[in-house]
Structure to design on (137 residues):
């Protein structure tokens, strides 16, 4: 019987505290590029070729702004930093977008806590890529 109580109590307590985690120290650009992922277990990154990187960044900004549990932290003409919070436990992931030139857009999504994100960051970038593809038309 105690194990059932623990199984019910632990997720409830974790949900109450919303684990945010520390802000990654490698956010932003260095030498004109986003930082590489420290490992694929809790980070994903990609580079998209687009017709107009500024338009793609604006379109992605609007999509992120209208997504649930997201907050745009920093935004400029060629960079965006936003956070996504998970529905149940409130785990925070940081998403960065950066335009290198008129046709290149870099994207990175990294978890603040944990050893594995169970593929969430890669799925997020895949979902965002569908918005980028529409900007090429």
């Amino acid at each position: 019987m105690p194990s059932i109580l623990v199984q019910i109590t632990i997720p409830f307590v974790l949900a109450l505290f919303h684990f945010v985690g520390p802000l990654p120290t490698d956010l932003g650009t260095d030498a004109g590029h986003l930082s590489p992922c420290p490992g694929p277990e809790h980070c994903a990154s990609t580079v998209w070729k687009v017709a107009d990187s500024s338009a793609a960044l604006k379109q992605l900004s609007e999509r992120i702004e209208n997504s649930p549990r997201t907050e745009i932290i920093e935004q400029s003409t060629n960079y965006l930093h936003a956070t996504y919070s998970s529905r149940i436990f409130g785990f925070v992931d940081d998403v960065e977008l950066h335009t290198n030139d008129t046709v290149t857009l870099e994207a990175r999504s990294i978890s603040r806590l944990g050893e594995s994100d169970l593929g969430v960051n890669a799925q997020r970038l895949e979902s965002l890529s569908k918005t980028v593809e529409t900007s090429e038309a």
